[in-house]
Amino acid sequence: MNRLIKSFSTFVFLILWGFNPAFAGGKAGEFDYYVLALSWSPSWCAREGDRRGSPQCEPSEDFGFVLHGLWPQYENGWPSDCRSSFADPSRGQTSAMADIMGSSGSAWHQWKKHGRCSGLNSFEYYDLMREAYGLVNRPDVLRQITRVMDVAPLVVEDAFVEINAELDPDEVTITCKSGQLQEARICMTKDLEFRRCGRDVIRDCGAKSVEILPIQ
Fold it and tell me: pTM (2 decimals)?
């Protein structure tokens, strides 16, 4: 009985504190909206990519905000690793996404974890990702940074809102990791119109300031 009470208490604690688990194996095509995740490439390269030898981080590249993914989302939580009746993308398809995603490996991973949950085939999903990426203006001012700068996350959010006329603050979230700018996440309907983010997505980075690393 004590074990049951303890488990229930833990469950209530997680709910109250906004814990939102993914729903692995959700049903493909059944979700509420999309999250377009744009990753600040210099931060990812410094944290992981350089160590992995990712082509995204080669000195010849100058990626700023790359497309991390287009994620099917529930109003609270998200599906992942869904079963799909569609064939997986070819190497040619994943390679063709590297210009906005940084690498073919990232394109493959996003299909496997999120694309299968969209209910679309791989051609449709990658086309939709590219369309969504093209609909969002990305602040050029961040590309002009030549040294590490400490900036409030709200400043980055405001930069997105300012250059995207239809975008409201509750429709974009800025995240951070290890004290650095991580991502801008924009919430979209299935028709790729901006919409308010769900409660598990809407929370911004809580830091007063984050480091923005320059493009090398």
Answer: 0.88
Q: Give the Cα separation of 135 and 71 in Å (integer).
A: 16
DSSP annotation of 192 reads S
* Residue 41, C-beta contacts closer than 8 angstroms, at least 6 positions apart: 49, 56, 57, 63, 64, 65, 66, 102, 215
Tens digit of each residue's pLDDT, the chain (216 residues): 444 334 434 333 333 334 445 566 689 999 999 999 999 999 999 999 999 999 999 989 999 999 999 999 999 999 999 999 999 999 999 999 999 999 999 999 999 999 999 999 999 999 999 999 999 999 999 999 999 999 999 999 999 999 999 999 999 999 999 999 999 999 999 999 999 999 999 999 999 999 999 997
Distance CA 194, CA 187 (A): 6
Name the one residue in this structure whose structure tokens are 């992981």: 48
Q: 21-212 has which CATH code?
A: 3.90.730.10
